[in-house]
């Protein structure tokens, strides 16, 4: 980490949280928190620790912990290791995964995934969305940086859902859908948000699916290949399905 970054980070390399988790490096920092790779000095495992400053005006980590705990045992979900808080920050410790899909996409030739990779990811992400819906919550921030591949030989073909900070309960314990609010504040990421979300309407399960659709369009580069296909078909009369045929 650079000196400048270190000054604003909540934790520094070699800091130890709760006499147990020793910071190795920072791996992410978004709108709500910072994520570090840490060594669990009890189990000697390398795990991820996400922190949220006590000064942050919107406290979302407690919601994240509640949803992560509810999802334990499901596929596509990180194993929960621990959580806590002190006067400076709230934290959650979980299984460490590999790189997120936004970073992985940028490393690909042409900046996009093939059709087969996109479809296999789409299936896994759909399963992950089904899991969170099955425990009565919407994710509300489906996007490539909120999914990561496993980092071990046994998990590297599995895609994991991250970041439940914007999750919202849509059903009560009797599986009844909560009545919608007439106006709900915008939640999520503009680029992947459904029309409903842009209109500040109460979100539902379908809005997570719209975001999945937008993210798949992006990671495969479908918009670019559609335009190219339209140009080609105007010129040659080639069939439209050729647009999906990127290798
Ligand atoms: N368990 C994990 N294992 C590996 N990397 C992780 C893990 N959790 C988070 N990350 C990394 O940290 C990044 C930020 O994490 P997360 O999305 O949970 O934080 P955030 O502050 O809520 O982000 P944002 O506001 O940008 O959505 C992720 O994109 C991912 O690269
Ligand atoms: Mg995130």
Any descriptors?
247 residues, alpha+beta, Phosphorylase Kinase, domain 1, Transferase(Phosphotransferase), domain 1, six-stranded antiparallel sheet, two-stranded antiparallel sheet, 7 helices, 20% strand, globular, disordered N terminus, disordered C terminus, binds adenosine-5'-triphosphate, binds magnesium ion
Give the structure's gist in a few sentences.
This protein is an alpha+beta fold and 247 residues long.
Task: Give an overview of the whole structure.
The chain is of the alpha+beta class and 247 residues long. It folds into 2 domains: 20-95, Phosphorylase Kinase, domain 1, CATH 3.30.200; 99-223, Orthogonal Bundle (Transferase(Phosphotransferase), domain 1), CATH 1.10.510. 32% of the residues lie in helices and 20% in strands. The protein has helices spanning 3-8, 61-70, 101-107, 115-134, 195-198, 205-220, 222-236, and strands at residues 16-17, 21-29, 34-40, 46-53, 80-85, 89-95, 137-138, 147-149, 159-161, 168-169. The protein has a 6-stranded antiparallel beta sheet with strand order 1-2-3-4-6-5, covered by helices on one side. Helix 4 packs antiparallel against helix 6 (205-220). It is globular and about 60 Å long. Mean pLDDT is 89; it is low at 1-6 and 236-247. Residues 27-28, 30-33, 35, 48, 50, 78, 94, 96-97, 100, 141, 145-146, 148, 162-163, 165 line the site of adenosine-5'-triphosphate. Magnesium ion binds next to loops.
């Amino acid at each position: 980490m650079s000196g400048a970054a270190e000054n604003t980070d909540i934790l520094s390399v070699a800091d130890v949280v709760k006499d147990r988790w020793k910071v190795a490096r920072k791996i992410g920092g978004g709108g709500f928190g910072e994520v570090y790779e840490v060594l669990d000095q009890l189990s000697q495992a390398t795990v991820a620790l996400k922190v949220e400053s006590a000064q942050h005006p919107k406290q979302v980590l407690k919601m994240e912990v509640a949803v992560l705990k509810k999802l334990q045992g499901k596929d596509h979900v990180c194993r929960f290791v621990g959580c806590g808080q002190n006067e400076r920050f709230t934290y959650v410790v979980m299984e460490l995964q590999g790189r997120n899909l936004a970073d992985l996409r940028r490393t690909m030739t042409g900046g996009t995934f093939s059709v087969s990779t996109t479809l296999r990811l789409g299936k896994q992400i759909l399963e992950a969305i089904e899991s969170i819906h099955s425990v009565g919550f919407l994710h509300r921030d489906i996007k490539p940086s909120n999914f990561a591949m496993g980092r071990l030989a046994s998990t590297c073909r599995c895609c994991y859902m991250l970041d439940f900070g914007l999750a919202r309960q849509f059903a009560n314990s009797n599986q009844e859908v909560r009545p919608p609010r007439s106006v709900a504040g915008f939640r999520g990421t503009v680029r992947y948000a459904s029309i409903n979300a842009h209109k500040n309407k109460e979100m539902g399960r379908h809005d997570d699916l719209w975001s999945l659709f937008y993210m798949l369009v992006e990671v495969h580069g479908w918009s670019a290949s559609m335009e190219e296909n339209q140009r080609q078909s105007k010129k040659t009369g080639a069939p439209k399905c050729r647009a999906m045929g990127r290798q």
